[in-house]
Specification:
The protein is of the alpha/beta class. A 3-stranded parallel beta sheet has the order 1-3-2. The chain starts with a helix and ends in a 14-residue tail after the last helix. The protein contains 4 helices and 3 strands. The mean pLDDT is 88. It has one domain.
Amino acid sequence: MEMEERIKIITGSMTETENITDVLERAAEDKADEVEIGAGRPREKNSDMFSDATRIENEIVTFLRNSEYPRIVKIICASDAETELYMMAYNYWYATEKDERINDGRWD
């Protein structure tokens, strides 16, 4: 399974996940197919949210590169704008080809 298939970024309602690595490690131990991570708290400046998204996604991608489980990590964002920003951050840092981008149909 490719990385862009293992990370899903969606809009929903979930509190911020405090220690992402602990959540991922528990999911790996339990051989969980899927785990949900609450995105960082909303920020006034998009640049601060982009930094949060980059930090959170880096932690997730680094973990997933070295672990079969969880198979899918859902990042739950508080708003559609935040979801879009998280997708843009992922695509900026990790998608080297167009078909590797996370895209829910709003672009291209």
